[in-house]
Amino acid sequence: MTAETSQTLDRGLRVLKLLADTDHGLTVTELSHKLGVNRTVVYRLLATLEQHALVRRDIGGRARVGLGVLRLGRQVHPLVREAALPALRSLAEDLGATAHLTLVDGTEALAVAVVEPTWTDYHVAYRAGFRHPLDRGAAGRAILHARQGCTEGDGLALTHGELEAGASGAAAPLLGVSGIEGSVGVVLLADTVPERVGARVVAAAKEVAEALR
Hints:
The protein is of the alpha+beta class. It has 7 helices and 8 strands.
């Protein structure tokens, strides 16, 4: 800790991070041990976080992340979208294909930014807000590759006809970005994905990941 930082805020943020890393919640005693502070301090931290709906405690007294965190998380999408747009525009124009940024939303893949090429006679229509299962479509499969630690070929996923008949997809996950699961990809009218497309998508995903770090 330095003179410019708040010890209480630091501890509160550490509580949220600890709770976010567990599926079954943590007791006051467990949090006290992990933070290296006494139980009274933990009670005060939890009470404050509960007031803001960032933490909730179940019947057994275990603390868990509250719904307030989800409300904060929704505000992240516009910031992530803004950071990704330059790379998406370049990708769409280079390949003449519809480019998109997709993030995990619960158990689904959610397209949060879409850029269509300006010079093509026709291209695949795709819209921000489109949802699909993580195990269907290149965008979701790329995210699953990263989640499973499969980063061979930088986690590139290629699909054909899974979400739209006659359309192929290529997507690469955002790697090394803390707190964000997502992918960058393109959708194009083709039976197969040219090798150049895959390499360009991987490069764009790395560019977006760097902008978000």
